[in-house]
């Protein structure tokens, strides 16, 4: 079975994490494997993964989408609300959004994203908003897969 593009992005991100950083991907709930129909009670992770640099813990939700905007339906309510509430000087909650066909990837703080969602009447997050309010993560295509400069990125947002 071929991997979906979102899983490929997650793998590329993981392979891009600097060796000196700790990386952990939270285990997906069993309900997500069959559309959630076979499990009566399910829990939802706050985010996809966490990465620890020498001075900060990053809680990260990874999204990959085609087009020039990310539909709000791609973000679960518990993710945006939970991550936006994190208030600790050594923890940053971020969404990293990859626009596959545009070959652009942006990071945005969960708090900024939550404010946008609660004050906008749009049903999606346009790439223009991320260009103006987020940080672009530079990526380089290696044949067909990507490698991201996360060393530079983590230093930039520290």
Automatic annotation (TrEMBL):
Family: Belongs to the RecU family.
Protein name per its UniProtKB record: Holliday junction resolvase RecU
Entry GO MF terms: endonuclease activity
Upper lineage: Bacteria, Bacillati, Bacillota, Clostridia, Eubacteriales
Compartments reported by the entry: Cytoplasm
Main localization category: cytoplasm
Database matches in Pfam families: RecU (PF03838)
Domain of life of the source: Bacteria
Signal peptide: none
Cofactor: Mg(2+)
Keywords: Cytoplasm, DNA damage, DNA recombination, DNA repair, Endonuclease, Hydrolase, Magnesium, Metal-binding, Nuclease
